[in-house]
Task: structure prediction
Amino acid sequence: MRSNVSRPAFRRVAGIVAAGLAVAASTGCSVPVDAVAGISMSDDGHLLGVMMVCGHRIDGATAYVDSEDVNKERTVGSWTADRPLTAGLATWSLQSPSTGWTVSSSLTRLAPKTTYILYGWTKDSSWSSGSVSFDLTDIGRISPGTVRYDDISADGDESPITVPLAEFKARACKDT
Result:
């Protein structure tokens, strides 16, 4: 039986399919984002983690040293929520035990001139949060009732901003 498809046409279609599969395979590894992480300060001066969950769930959060060299990235703190966080706002102390949270790894002493990242995750890697970057200078600029987070503009650019908690609650999920 003879095919009606020419070899050049077949090769072209096969190439398009192969390219599509390669793109699908390379993008299939990222965890979808459905929450926004931030940091704040308690009235008594303790650093707080802030998580605005937009619709699904987050099971915990991790802070690590940001580095261009993956081998130099290291966890500096990790917390697991006693129950999955669902849509809405959650806060917890990054420096001491908090009700509703288990400290998996206590926050180490933060060093000057070091950038840290805080993000949320799920145990099964089904969801994650957008991350927030910060250093000691940034922490010094945060006052109680405000949240620092990485805002995402309409064109996809990220920039750190500090806003009142009410504004964070109102707009954080609009960026995801």
